[in-house]
Amino acid sequence: MSDSEFDKKIRRSAGGFLSVSGFFSTTANRSYVENYAGNDTNETDRTQSALFEIEIDETVNKFQYADISKNSAFENEAEILFTMGAVFRIQSVDHDSRGVWSVKLKLTGEEYEELQKLTHRMIDKTLGGGPKVSLASLMIKMGKYGEAQQLLSEIIDDPSIIIDSKALAGVHHHLGLVYKYMEQEQNAVKHYQLSLQMKRQLEEPEPSSLACTMNCLGLRCLPQEQEPIIECLIVISQLYYEYNMFHDALETRQRALSLQSKLYTSDHIDIASSLLFIGQLYRHTKNYDQTLVYFDQCLKIYQANYGEEHVDITQLLRKIELTTNQMNEEAIVGDGVPLRLYKLLEVAVHFIISNYLQQNVAT
């Protein structure tokens, strides 16, 4: 597994969920799979070896799995196959003495509140407005804007959609997207505004959905070349970071953040990503005051978009705690002496004095 993919999906998501998009082939024969996990010392720095150990809660019946060892092409494989869409809780991620990551997973059910929310969001995103809206969305992705526009215009007159404000807002958002690609700016703005108005009138408007439409509406009023510029700046800043060129990375990412602040709403998650990245750069240069400023701004956006128990919030709070501890340890006391060194000297002096007193008392 690539280093970046492992970090994003596994190492930084401990306590969160791992979703499988295709069939997931596993084995009950540990020694068999350990041969494949091997040792990553001969691999490049950009790959990771990982061994997944899965605990199955037999009361979970949402995700199907089966022992297909009798039908496997390899007799000793003892293959157990999990169906598409299976979701696992990442319980722990450890690096063993062989250089292999040991990842403990648990097949989980819907009793977790976070998973229920995630499932509902995925269903709303995929099927919001019914199969016709899903078909129109697919047409947009295929570049068939005329067909998508015609279908969405028909959906607007559907009685079942008219009475569903949330679905109707989604249809108008899709129409705004279609007209944007068809370069009909006035129509795009019109439908984005209708979508935004309807979303705001919902009993429980979703911040992420509001932000999405507000973002699209804002982009109609700003130069279109800004988005690819932002993407390029982000990639360049990451390359600078990889080569430990922190000053250049900081300068480049701040330029990206400046453009993002003009394009997006203040609680947009992309802005949070840049704030977090800049905070980490300041942490590398030991500018802990600035680190905490950017981490705090990022935390506020996370809290506005996610639940308090979200893994990103937990990890960020941990970063804030570690940064605060580092700042305290490296604080400067009198005559420019670091606090950590001062404490070590204090302990050493106390030991010497105690030892001296004991020897004198003994004599």
From TrEMBL:
InterPro entries: TPR-like_helical_dom_sf, TPR_rpt. The keyword Repeat applies. This is Uncharacterized protein. Keywords: Repeat, TPR repeat. It comes from Rotaria magnacalcarata. The keyword Membrane does not apply. It holds the Pfam family TPR_12. TPR repeats lie at residues 272-305. It comes from the Eukaryota.
